[in-house]
Amino acid sequence: MVNSSFSKDSEILTDCITHFDTKGEPFGNQDRNSLKLFDLNGMTINVKSFRTPNLINQIAYRFFRKSKAQRSFEYGNWLQSLDIGTPQPIAYYEFKTPLLFKKSYYISQQLDCDLTYRELTTDFNYPNHEAILRAFTRFTYKLHQKKVHFLDHSPGNTLIKTEGDSYAFFLVDLNRMEFKTLDFETRIKNFSKLTTHKFMVEIMSDEYSKCSGEDYNAIFDIMWSETEAFQNRYHRKRKLKNKILFWRRNK
């Protein structure tokens, strides 16, 4: 499926997919899915190759669920219709057999940014650190007001561009979202994957309180407790994974 604005470029886009393994410039983290950059008539495009799912999901994606690539494309278009920043969706491609789902690809315009939220968690001397953090919190409040629940609201998934004294935010890694009215607790839990630093949670709680009119202490209590709970789950999983890898290497 190709965005109508790019229909004239269908042959070039198809060539990018057909020769994904031998062409293009690798970009970003390649651990889970592969990302490559290609040229499209002078525009840099980002092609994301999703891994072939396990057998159960090959059946599920073939008959019952939309693929990650299709969801990314559709959610990207929906976000843009809501005036929420995300790189321009261009196309998605899927490869199936009569019974199983195999590979899928999502293509979007490459967006050069000044930083991601992750830099705010590692460089506390970044210029206008607190101002950016507060602007990010207002952006998240806007998501919630527009009934967007970004399930992968994590440090690497928001690109940030500076525009004079203001900041623009763009969501990436779009395939896990819900679109519904969010209750208060769900809104605040949405911040739990972003940082381990209490002072950042305090700032985000303060700004969200200003945006929503809700009590600061109620916001902070949920945001910080959910942050700690997420970190505990994350480290337990890492510890278990390391034990399994150690056992496999030494059995």
| Average predicted confidence as pLDDT | 94
Radius of gyration: 20 Å
Structural class: alpha+beta
Give the DSSP E fraction (strand runs of 2 or more residues): 15-25%
The gross shape turns out to be globular
The number of helical elements comes to 8
Placed side by side, the strands forming the largest sheet appear as: 1-2-3-5-4
Enumerate the spans where pLDDT stays under 50 for 5 or more consecutive residues. none
How can the largest sheet be summarized? 5 strands, antiparallel
Strand segment count: 10
The sequence of SSEs as H and E is HEEEHHEEEHHEEEEHHH
Q: State the share of residues found in helices, binned by percent.
A: 40-55%
Distance between the termini: 47 Å
How would you portray this structure in words?
Strand 4 and strand 5 form a beta hairpin. The strands form 3 sheets. The chain has a 5-stranded antiparallel β-sheet with strand order 1-2-3-5-4, with helices on both faces. Strands 6-8-9 form a 3-stranded antiparallel β-sheet. A two-stranded antiparallel sheet has the order 7-10. It has 251 residues and is of the alpha+beta class. It is 44% helix and 22% strand. The mean pLDDT is 94. It is built from 8 helices and 10 strands.
What's the structural blueprint in terms of helices and strands?
Elements: H1 10-18, E1 25-26, E2 34-40, E3 43-50, H2 55-63, H3 68-81, E4 89-96, E5 101-109, E6 115-116, H4 117-122, H5 129-145, E7 148-150, E8 158-163, E9 166-171, E10 177-179, H6 184-189, H7 198-212, H8 216-250
Antiparallel strand pairs: 1-2, 2-3, 3-5, 4-5, 6-8, 7-10, 8-9
Helix pairs in contact: 5-7, 7-8
